[in-house]
Specification:
The chain is α+β, with helices and mostly antiparallel strands. Among the domains are: about 160 residues, 2-Layer Sandwich (Beta Polymerase, domain 2), CATH 3.30.460.20; about 60 residues, no CATH class. It is built from ten helices and six strands; from the N terminus they run E-H-E-H-H-E-E-E-E-H-H-H-H-H-H-H.
Length: about 350
């Protein structure tokens, strides 16, 4: 990658009253030449001047949770459609791709694992013939690594904003894989807890939370397939043919994530059913054991209550060995019942 010229070599004069860039909202602001190399830094007020310069290939701007004033400034500099700007400001949009005149507007959902749960965010992408604008909301990783990889390959950066758009899409999709792998590992641990002898209420609770998170993730990943299909088949003026092969690779990654997510959701459903079945079986075993011991206690209880009714004319009471015979009969009945219940696996 060629060395970046210092900021004071910028060919565009600074305005008399420059727009103050909000701190933390502007994460990236760069322009690239027709050869794909990065040009000197510019300010927000100089974006329109850079776009008017025939030596500039395109401008790439990255924003994070911008306010209304900053988005209005971007609308002014890039001539964005007001409906797309409104969606980017409000967020909470479904994943989609829309065409507004000579520009594309993409909405994607991003995901990160925060304290064992998936936190979701949104990334909005404006793609024009000579600009690329990304707007991130909520949980999302920076696109700086993706941009750095692009800048190291000037031959591909010559393809313009569509290649930068591919880099953003690829970064969003690649960030899904660590989440899938982490949740796969957690599912394996939960499977071991399911078959443990001791029932834990936390296990079924975590299984439910994991399935809920994966269901939300599927809602974020599944529409990406349709978005990529549209980008690969339509919009020839905005998506270069050379970029479509890279988009196919991203589409394959989305398919893998989607299949892995569906597989884990099915496994979680089965795991929850198995967990509940094992709990039911365990409860049934406990009831059987209680019933078996109750049967053993019922025999001596019956005999002692029979001879505890204080009747005067019970012939067995006058026998010399009646007491010992009664003890022997009680022990015999209990022993027989115990052997039979053990054979029936009730004890």
């Amino acid at each position: 990658m060629s060395a970046q010229p210092p900021a004071d070599m910028c060919p565009y004069p600074a305005p008399a009253s420059p727009y103050p860039a909000p701190e933390g909202m502007v994460r990236n602001l760069a322009s690239y030449g027709l050869d794909g190399a990065r040009l000197p830094d510019i300010g927000l007020e100089q974006i329109s001047d850079a776009l008017a310069d025939p030596k500039v290939g395109f401008v790439w701007v990255g924003l994070y949770e911008p306010d209304e004033a900053l988005l209005q400034k971007m609308q002014e500099e890039f001539d964005l459609h007001p409906l797309a700007v409104e969606d980017a400001l409000n967020a909470h949009q479904r994943p989609k791709v829309e065409l507004y005149g000579d520009s594309l507007f993409l909405v994607m959902q991003t995901a990160q694992v925060v304290k064992g749960h998936i936190a979701f965010g949104e990334t909005h992408v404006f793609v024009g013939q000579r600009y690329l604008l990304t707007v991130r909301h909520g949980a999302s990783l920076s696109f700086t690594p993706a941009r750095d990889r692009c800048e190291r390959n000037t031959d591909l950066m010559k393809l313009g904003p569509s290649y930068g758009m591919y880099a953003v899409l690829d970064s969003v999709v690649d960030n899904y894989f660590p989440i899938v792998e982490e949740f796969q590992g957690e599912l394996n641990e939960l499977e071991q807890e399911i078959f443990a002898e001791e029932y834990r209420r936390e296990t079924i609770h975590r299984l439910y939370e994991l399935k809920r998170d994966l269901t939300q993730m599927r809602l974020a990943v599944s529409p990406m397939q349709d978005i990529l299909n549209q980008l690969m088949q339509f919009h020839p003026t905005l998506v270069r043919d050379e970029v479509r092969v890279y988009l196919r690779d991203v589409s394959d990654h989305v398919l893998r994530v989607n299949e892995a997510t569906d597989t884990m959701r099915e496994m979680l459903t089965a795991a929850m059913s198995v967990n509940l079945s094992l709990v039911t079986v365990a409860q049934g075993e406990i009831v059987k054991r209680l019933a078996g011991w109750a049967a053993l206690l019922a025999a001596p209880t019956l005999l002692t209550s029979w001879y505890g009714m204080n009747f005067h004319h019970m012939p067995e009471l006058d026998g010399r060995y009646s007491y010992w015979i009664m003890i022997a009969v009680t022990i015999g009945i209990c022993t027989g019942l115990y052997a039979w219940l053990r054979r029936a696996r009730w004890l």
